[in-house]
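for the writeup, i need someone to sanity check this before i put it in the appendix. the sequnce is what the collaborator sent (i think, or maybe the updated version? ugh). structure was predicted straight from it, no edits. if anything looks off just tell me and ill rerun, i have time this weekend
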Amino acid sequence: MANRDEFIKNALEFINSTRSAQRIRGAKLIRKNGLTELKSELYAAFLKELKDARTWEVKSEMLKTLGALKCDEAMPQIWQIVERNLAADAVTSSATTAYIRLKRAHKDDAREIINLLKTGSYSVALGALTALAIDQMSPSEAEILEILRLSRDIHKHEDRRGREFGLIDPRVYVAIASANWLGGVQGEAVREWLNYCKVTAIYHAANGEERVNLRLVEICETVLKGKIPKGYIEIY
């Protein structure tokens, strides 16, 4: 108990610090240790953070934690960010992941992910698919097949064209999550999708050179071997 009390005291001090690095540290500390006691305090700090357009990294970390702690009171602000549908924006991506975690009926409910993939920007799609991986979601067969269909060529998203070297291929997160999808009737479709990703794991570097996305290839190969990829998702 003493350690938890100390974590709570430190985290509260950090999220209310005038230094952005400390506020980031506080959000991570709360998330890592599941300090649900500080939900309201973090939400209040997040509302203050929204007034400063410069602190995108702080907002991103706070959003990750609000989603992890299931802070429902933050939903209006989170949805406002998602709804803006900005093309390449870290805050939008983190907000979308938090939105999925708050909105779904249960851990494996992928309905909102599918809805957002149909109309979302690159950042919205990335955030939605991130939720699949960090929570090791196992949606229904129908939802898995629809996610595979919608994400098959998502690396070609119009928001990513010409910026591939700076924007992650969202299929990385589907591939990680798919390690739990190989059983059942959808297994063959999952394997076909993974093999397709391997042969299309190409991006253009800043100088225009065509390169292989070795990270995506390695993840796909790991999953095809029946193993769960390790080390690709931070503590979220």
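The beta strands are 202-204, 210-212. Residues 2-15 form the longest helix (14 residues).
thx in advance!!
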